[in-house]
Amino acid sequence: MSIGKILIVIGDAAEALDTMYPLYRVKEDDYQAVVAGPEVKVYPLVMHEIPPGWTITKESPSYHLASEIAFRDVKPEEYAGMFITGGRAPEYLRYDQDLMRITKHFFATGKPVACVCHGVEIIAAADVIRGKRVATVAKCRYDAEFSGATYVNEGCVRDGNLVTGRTWHDNPYYMREFMNMLADARRSAAAA
Fold this sequence. Notes:
This protein has a seven-stranded mixed sheet with strand order 6-3-1-7-8-12-11, with helices on both faces. The protein has 192 residues and is an alpha/beta fold. The mean pLDDT is 96. The protein has six helices and twelve strands. It has one domain (5-191): Rossmann fold (3-Layer(aba) Sandwich), CATH 3.40.50.880. It is 33% helix and 27% strand. It is globular and about 55 Å long.
């Protein structure tokens, strides 16, 4: 039985490891992972790696993942937490006004949010990271800094209700903290 719903934000070209590890990690602790995208459909995920001798990321096709709900239909008050994936998807998703509404809700209410890699483009566009410390992939450093955040080159950076990681290589670090945040929020709600 689910102990709460976690919104998993994806779109076309979301990074596979950025997405799949958190998807299964929240399920492991009995949360219901609800995959959301601009529309209810199957989204192609991608794999990002820096091949030997390269200095930039190579993108390759990967798995496909279906969303269960469109952003416009999400009622954020029904969710215990939010996970924002990386990959190329955030570059386009940050223009979705329903996703901006959802993102702002989580920050206004202090609910746990985890974000990795290019996902910082979404929280930067929502204007919710001013004055916060955030980790992200190095090539998104300026997105964070132009939005008033301080870039930190670490695998897990927590600032208030937000925990961030650089890339999928950091999954075990920032996801451990996200799961702790969710558990703390659940205990606080039960005690209230």
